[in-house]
Amino acid sequence: APCGLSRLCVRPELQNAGLGRRMMQSVMAEAKARGLTGIRLLASVDNPAANSLYIRLGCNRLGETRLYDWPFIAYEKLL
């Protein structure tokens, strides 16, 4: 079964140092070690850094959705 991830954040002054990538890699490794088959997540359409990161990590863009009346892009990464 896949898991869902919400609210991965890096403080603005620490961004662009690879922390988000390392955190995501760690989360994906832990999910796989626990026997999960994938990870699903959302990124705001207004967050180009997150969207770029998820694409670079090999996540598949599933489409757009709305949550809390805000537009998001849905991603999935099979483990």
Detailed description of the structure:
- A hairpin with a 2-residue loop joins strand 3 (about 60-65) and strand 4 (about 70-79).
- The mean pLDDT is about 95.
- Helices cover about 30% and strands about 35% of the residues.
- It is an alpha+beta fold and about 80 residues long.
Sum up the structure in keywords.
79 residues, alpha+beta, 2 helices
Describe the SSE topology.
Elements: E1 2-5, H1 19-33, E2 38-44, H2 48-56, E3 60-67, E4 70-78
Parallel strand pairs: 1-2
Antiparallel strand pairs: 2-4, 3-4
Give the overall form.
globular
Q: What is the typical, i.e. mean, pLDDT?
A: 95
What about the largest sheet? 4 strands, mixed
Strand order of the largest sheet: 1-2-4-3
Along the chain, the helix and strand elements come as EHEHEE
> In terms of quaternary structure, what is this?
single chain
Residue stretches low in confidence (pLDDT < 50, at least 5 long) are: none
Condensed summary:
The chain has 79 residues and is α+β, with helices and mostly antiparallel strands. It has helices at 19-33, 48-56, and strands at residues 2-5, 38-44, 60-67, 70-78.
